[in-house]
Amino acid sequence: MRNSTKSKLEMVLFTLPAIILVTMMIYIPFVSSGYYSLTEWNGISSSATFVGLENFKTILLKSSQFTDVLAFTGKYTVLFMLFSNVLALGLAVLLVQKLKTANFLRGVFFVPYIMSMTIVGFIWKFIFSSGFARLYQLTNWGFFNWSWLGNADLAFYSVVIVGVWQQLGFYMVLYIAGLQAIPGDVLEAATVDGAHSVRRFFSVTLPLLAPSITICLFMSLTNALKMFDIVLALTQGGPGGSTYTATLDIYREAFQHNNFGLGSAKAVVFFFIVLVLTQLVLWISRRQEVDL
Amino acid sequence: MMTRKQKTRLKWILAEFFAIALAAFYIYPIFLMVNNSLKPFREVIMDVIALPSRLAVENYVNVVERMNYGALFMNNVIITVVGLLGIIVFSSIAAYTINRTRNRYTRIAHFLIITPMLIPFQTFMITLLKTMNVFGLAGSLVGLGIQYWGFGVPMATFIYANFIQTVPREIDESAFIDGASTLQTFAHVIFPILKPITTTVIVLNVMWIWNDFLLPLLMVNSTERTRTLVLSAYTFVGQFNTQWHYAMTAMVLAVAPSVIFFVLLQKHIVKGVIAGAVKG
Description:
By secondary structure, chain A is an all-alpha fold. Chain A has helices at 4-36, 54-62, 65-95, 102-114, 117-139, 152-181, 184-191, 197-208, 210-225, 229-234, 246-256, 260-291; strands spanning 39-40, 49-50.
């Protein structure tokens, strides 16, 4: 038998680095975030003034600024989840067919996902301004002439379009993996022949795809809630602050307005919202899966 | 009259054509970026859609020099390599220990290590900067690489632990009988078996660390010397937002490494991304 003191020592020695690392980078800042949310602190001075729940009152009750930001993030999340999942599923169904170019095309749709989101934001800023202007000259189609980044309502949809465009390939790949796990004859029957294919898709393929749907819903939820880079590059939160996401707002409150206490309070509220929503989606999806 | 066979063939050709057209439409924004990066300024202003009359390679020469591209590339390599090494070493051995020794201590260790997967980075980024200043990890490339250890370890440990479950204990036992220590067994026997999952961990972390924006923005943006490729492109595009030909070139240069990485390792990357999502 192995020396038990030695193996105990090894057990601690081999897990301790990982524990120390997550404590340093995650637990300490996370806990102090909780503490600073109860203070007024400019981030520079060494002492922060304790103000109790004042910050939470300010962001949740006294001003609608943060609740507006949360509403925007929520609206974005709903549309992002809807479009990215529906379109990705459609693409996946198309690209599991025996097309000669299927493999190559899957790669093409995946490319935006491996690119930096900041650069993706810039590419689309160029498209929405210079690209659309030229397309309008060529086609005279009215929607090319709309102010896609200058009008608050349109800017919202621009952010959704770019967000979905960047991540579509990721969900497509996950759905393709799910579809390929379905026995071939079932899928063939469900897609090949004409009139019945739609109904068979909804009553055969889709239920069998439930695990993939759960994963994609969960991933699209967390990715949408954390949206930051694309908005920063595409709209900088504008026009008139209409496209501020929760994370961009937390960043601005702390690092641009130097309200670290207020920013930490927003971060704490954001954390609980993310926690509740992700657990809710997991719980609902798992129940669905069991029912089937 | 078409035969049934001809009809199905036509259907497939149409489907093929539709899929290709869709993909071309989808990728058009990226094409437009590359297209305009290769034009002289005058042509970008006149018509962003037309193809360049000649390839303006001077844009690239100019931007590579102005951005100091070689140095930026090395900065990214340093951060990514340092990050990867720590994540792989500390996660794999922690996952191995947690899986092979089942007691109260390892259960708590497991819980502590993987729970941070539920905490979004943005909820503690404000105090992170202060904490990293205290530990002396802010403001340097290696320091940033080390920070990624903490952020990468939870997910990597989780993925490794799932995989190690499938590695039979008999393999360890026979190494112990041959007189190997735990560390030797892990390094020479277990770790090589983990190769496929290590590939997954590498793919996921390279994609994340190489393109990460927010953490480098907080930690290494104050001096030009320590900026990453994406940070520098962000600043560059901000400065040259009227000179789109240079901005486009900088953007192409910023995404080129990831795109090349993807083209070369497409199979591994797609497999890794699926494994990461399914297990995470």
